[in-house]
Hints:
Layout: H1 3-6, H2 9-22, H3 38-41, E1 56-58, H4 69-77, H5 92-100, E2 107-110, H6 113-124, E3 130-135, H7 140-147, E4 151-156, H8 165-174, E5 179-185, H9 197-205, E6 213-216, H10 232-236, E7 241-246, E8 259-262, H11 265-271, H12 281-292, H13 294-317, E9 329-333, H14 338-347, E10 350-352, E11 362-366, H15 370-383
Helix pairs in contact: 4-12, 5-12, 6-7, 8-9, 13-15
The structure holds pyridoxal-5'-phosphate.
Amino acid sequence: MDVRRSFSRRQFMGGAATALGYLGLKPGAELLAAEIDETVRFPFARRLDDPYDSLAHLNSNENPWGPSKNMLEAMNGAWKYANRYGYPDGNIQSAIAEHHGVSRDHILMGAGSGELLKVVGLTFMSPGKKVIGVEPTYSTVYRHATDLRADAITLPLMEDYRQNIPEMIRTIKINHRNVGFVFLCNPNNPTGITVTAAEVRQLLDNIPEDVPVLVDEAYHHFVQDPAYAESLPYVLEGRNVIITRTFSKIYGVAAMRLGYAIAKPELIDRMRPYSTGSVNALVKWGGVAALKDKESEKWVLDKTVELREKMIAGVKSMGFDVLPSNTNFFMMHSVRPSSEFRSAFRERGVAVGRDFPPMLDWLRVSVGNEEENERFMQALKEIA
Ligand SMILES: Cc1ncc(COP(=O)(O)O)c(C=O)c1O
């Protein structure tokens, strides 16, 4: 049921007032939020008079609506623990484990999944070791390898911008003794394209068993491609697979920092000494609420897909090619260097994705709320 539609006007106004209360705003303050009814479920709003808020943030694949009301309530309730070390944390680790049908010892939590990507590097890389994956992708793991005096072997995408699994298998076999781990971002950032379930199986079945494979599923919740499958079954089979997930995207708490890894307990035990354990009390409670709040999750998914497809149709109607997306962003062929587009968009108050070499004439655009997306389309019409 869509709760928004079943709200009476009185409940609705009460909800909106609560929403404003959360923000410390008086009713009547100038809001730049999308639709007021959205603010009942997502009582976060932007302000016209704030230079940061007034920018259309289409550059970091964030959720433009922020955390749901249920998450905010749970997080607000955790302030009373702000002065404590050992405090009740809503049993977040158990909640995550239960959500995936695994035991707690399969889960390692981190301050964002970015922390876990680094933990994997610290655990499996050492000077001379290689991380193997494609380029472009979410390249933190490659940069981190260099910091560890290790190295990355990056493979080009195929002509259709999909990850080249046979080439990955070949490269892993050739470098077997020196492979620290394999990185598979699924769906891939920045292309938004999935690796199919059959391809993941092909990869895992054709590489030496001892090679750890890190599957970054940051955008898992947005995937609608029926050929895709999450990689959890491989963890349960006891393979050397580590999955990372985040609360930064569909659950809208990027700044609060919560992510986790799922792997067999032996791997988690090896990784744990490298994690900081520095997740804050508020987001632990927010995370528990997020996993329970299926309606809000579905709302974000449906709205994101609806708005993404509307944007893609608009961009295509202007003659630009767009890669098929299974995420909350898409990549368009800007033809000219994307850096030129980026500056022109920025002058118009719209932030879009950075460069992703070697795809330097492609632009990554995140899906924002209606108002941000309209500003993007308006700016594109002026620039193109
Ligand atoms: C593919 C991918 N993995 C991981 C992250 C890191 O997210 P976080 O550290 O907020 O969980 C991002 C952030 O944009 C991402 O795009």
